[in-house]
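Hi Y.,

Following your request, here is the sequence exactly as I used it, all 416 residues.
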Amino acid sequence: MIPSTLDSPEEPFARASNDWDTQKLYSDLANAKQQFAPHTRRGLTPVEKRHLCGLLCGYSPAEISIILNKQTKGVEVDLSKTLYRYLEFLTNRPRNALTNWRDAIDWLEIAGYKTQPKTLTGVSLKATLHHSDSILSVAISPDGQYLATGSHDSTVKVWSLHSGELLRTISGHSTAVLLVAFSPASKTLLTRSRGGTVKLWNLQNGQLLKRLADVHRHESVAVSLDWQILAIGTTRGTIKIQHLNSGQLLQVLEGYQGDDISAIALSPNGKMLVASGLNAASGFCRATVTMWELPSGEVRGTFGSENYVAIAPDSRILVSHGGKIINLWNLQTGELLHSLQTGIRITSAAAISPDGKYFAVGCFDGAVRIWNFGGELLHTLEGNSSPISAVAIGLLGETLVSGGENGTVKLWQLRI
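Below is the corresponding structure, written out as tokens. Let me know if you'd prefer a different format.
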């Protein structure tokens, strides 16, 4: 059975204590709460602590609601009635001055509650897992409990992220599994095969819940963070946006400056979609990366000509890569922030840490390279004898999973 309860009031945001003096903050906020609302329960409630730690980890109220499987509006209302008011009192701000969650982080840092920032100092290999054929997709569940791996052997394996134990093998596809994705509540799993089927599975028993879509084998597929949208990049250079569960076609995006779409990225805030790929009419040259605004469907910008794209958690930075180049773009202004000449051929595998501090790319030399958004190479994770074909980073940013063309899956512990 999949656990549905949280082990402590801070879970799953316990990482906040790495960078913040949470115990002093709990105490001082409890005093502020008592003065602000003297007739309420003494001390911070477990829910208040959990929401506070989510903010300290850099998550927006919307992201916190997804992680905790709550309604976004409920979390926003709760914050506005409780923590935001206590924070104003604690930092000597006018009442109702706090309207943006990012201001809360800035005010607390100014007030001295942030400890000496810790940086990525090393990594260790935690476990090596195996498929019978190359790894094509990996995903870590939002609750940090499970790892799913999709392989060229047509199976999906579900593992315990902590122990590396194989929990279940799903054999419901007849061709290679190109995509695996967990639902926000970590109870269901979405898969996409090379044969063109997109399916939804019960994670507890491995049973097929629904066949969501049938797509062409060369079409790209992406799912939104809140699991409301399934985006399908077609071989005609258009993108179909449909409701994930009902299959209802919501809109078709046009204006892509290319033909085949090899990668789609949906911004975490749900307001942008970016696509990249090839322009077959020009001898299979890389097509221009194109960005649309959602839900209007208006083309809002173009960025370079890399094959693969990803968007940072704050929805402000686009990572595009192809060949031996990684480009970092400001999505709001279109400015090229950094162009990294890696000197190493990069595969399609890439992932951004949920805290937005670093990103990882897989390389043909069997290594995973980790960069920060300032363009600095932090680490090179070696140990795979074949090209890296899939990468994922856990929600707390402390576990990285890499899959290789030789069928091995490596779990890396990142020391933050």
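Residues 25 and 65 are 22 Å apart (CA to CA).

Thanks again,
Q.
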